[in-house]
Write a structure and sequence with these properties.
Helices cover 81% and strands 0% of the residues. By secondary structure, the chain is mainly α. The chain has one domain. Helix 2 runs antiparallel to helix 3 (54-82), helix 3 (54-82) runs antiparallel to helix 4 and helix 4 (89-115) packs antiparallel against helix 5. The two termini are 26 Å apart.
Length: 150
């Protein structure tokens, strides 16, 4: 109904807030559940203990990392498909799509390093993942400012 009220060039500027709100809602509906799922997946990760259970734990971690990578890949594709037209929201969605693609690659890299027990490479990939998490937090804050949510 609000969309129908926004007809004609004279009312175009009045429609911008309504259009942004609609796009922000779609943005949040795409991002929030996916990030909640990824957060739950990351909580299942832990340190690999030494001893007899280390092998089983490492295999479980590899599987969790692959699942996290798949979740980030899906979220990246979702962000690419979202295509907001709002000039402020569009670059955030594009940056998020790129970041989530990179984060998926990092999670897969960590899984490979755990599988190969390449501890030095694992440390570097883990630090990269932490940086990407901070970048994600920054992008989410940008989106919230644009959409004026808390």
């Amino acid at each position: 109904m609000a969309r129908a009220a926004c007809v004609g060039a004279a009312l175009a500027s009045a429609c911008a807030p309504i259009d942004r709100a609609r796009q922000c809602e779609a943005f949040a509906e795409a991002v929030n559940p996916a990030l909640a799922k990824i957060e739950a997946q990351t909580k299942s990760l832990g340190r690999v203990p030494s001893g007899a259970d280390a092998g089983r734990t490492a295999l479980a971690q590899i599987q969790h990392l692959v699942e996290i990578a798949e979740s980030y890949e899906a979220l990246s594709k979702t962000m690419e498909a979202l295509e907001p037209t709002d000039t402020k929201l569009k670059p955030v969605a594009k940056d998020m799509a790129k970041l989530y693609g990179k984060t998926a690659k990092t999670a897969r890299s960590i899984a490979r390093n755990v599988e190969k027990s390449q501890l030095k490479a694992l440390g570097g990939a883990s630090r990269r993942l932490e940086r990407q998490k901070r970048e994600q937090d920054t992008l989410v804050k940008r989106a919230k400012r644009i959409c004026k949510t808390k």
